Amino acid sequence: MATTPAQGPLTGVRVVELAGIGPGPFAAMILADLGADVVRVDRPGGVGLAIDPDYDITNRNKRSVIVDLKAADGPARVLDLAAHADIIIEGYRPGVAERLGVGPEACHARNPSLVYGRMTGWGQEGPLARRAGHDIAYIALTGTLGMIGEPGRPPAVPANLLGDYAGGSLYLVVGVLAALHHARAGGPGQVVDAAIVDGTAHLSAMIHGMLAAGGWQDRRGANLLDGGCPYYGTYETADGRYMAVGSLEPQFYAEFVTLLDLPEHADARKDWTRWGELREAVAARFKARTRDEWTSVFEGSDACVAPVLSLHEAPHHPHLAARGTFTDHGGLTQPAPAPRFSATPAAVRTGPARPGAHTADVARDWDLPNLLKGPA
């Protein structure tokens, strides 16, 4: 199965992804979206928590081969791929890749300039390094989960976006691309230890600064950006939907209370003793009309108010539709590659790679005839 011509700023970069779940595949998808030739090494029988391969968008723009790392010749096949790659990504627990014979030392023996990206929750070292875990546990220890939600209620779970993808995948991508730049400038290949706990903690840098300065209280729903402020949060509408309000600056707040017809609260913005009554007044106003009615009221304004859309609704919003923020490929509506590049635009070139579907193509393109001896 031939692939469409590569495009994007990473065209020519070769990546090997050792199949896993969560942040590793998403990081590899980002690299593939940006034009890298990503070869996913799937295992016989697939991985846990896998969805139907036809719908696994995180495997778009990739190619797949199947290698049984527990077979006698399995590690050698992966090392052959690593010898021809710029980057390799794995998401095993610490020590597993070494036991399988495809750890950093073995890979660097074949390819000294290789960037070896390791994606874990706890990191390669530390008391919890070998413990199992998932997104919610990682963000819990960093203090970020405890920031999210209403006061007096349990912390709200932000799906797996904050830990797995923001604190994990994005930091792995930054790390391997920085290390690749270093290697191409003449430096050696190296190992990138991308731990979700590290990345998620790093995301809270501004909050820690505010905390140190006395501008942030270490509790939920008591601060400017965590729902404690009545003009930065969400409100229910008459039809049980919601509007999001972010009228932080004075001029935006002034427009907000004007459009809500709450002139008596025009001077309540900085008076936190009046925030309780302001919140009640705003909530009552929003409950008086539907979400779509309020959307019309705030349309074209700088009050920084927007409707809270569902996943199904979002692709149809006029702004996102005009930008092509979502795209359809092979019958699947999905987020388009991001960010955007003026000279080397990225695109969804192929749908989700079915396991093992590209063995012959990869063997040819990477000059690895021995790859054809494995399962195809």
Describe this structure as you would to a colleague.
With 376 residues, the chain is α/β, with parallel strands linked by helices. Helix content is 33%, strand content 14%. The chain contains 13 helices and 11 strands. The termini are close together.
Summed up:
The protein is of the alpha/beta class and 376 residues long.
Largest sheet: 6 strands, parallel
**Percentage of residues assigned to helices:** 25-40%
Separation of termini? Answer: 12 Å
Widest β-sheet, arrangement of strands: 3-2-1-4-5-6
β-strand amount: 5-15%
The helix count comes to 13
Average pLDDT level? 95
Overall 3D shape: elongated
Number of strands: 11
Low-pLDDT windows of residues: none
The radius of gyration computed from the alpha-carbon positions, rounded to a whole number of angstroms, is 24 Å
Tell me the structural class. Answer: alpha/beta
SSE sequence, one letter per element? EHEEHEHHEHHEHHEEHHHEHEEH
Multimerization status: single chain
What descriptive keywords fit this protein?
376 residues; alpha/beta; six-stranded parallel beta sheet; three-stranded antiparallel beta sheet; 33% helix
Helices, strands, pairings?
Elements: E1 14-18, H1 23-33, E2 37-42, E3 62-66, H2 74-83, E4 87-90, H3 96-100, H4 104-110, E5 115-120, H5 135-142, H6 161-184, E6 191-195, H7 196-203, H8 205-212, E7 232-236, E8 242-246, H9 250-259, H10 275-286, H11 291-298, E9 305-307, H12 318-323, E10 326-329, E11 332-335, H13 359-365
Parallel strand pairs: 1-2, 1-4, 2-3, 4-5, 5-6
Antiparallel strand pairs: 7-8, 8-9, 10-11
Helix pairs in contact: 1-6, 2-4, 5-6, 5-7, 6-7
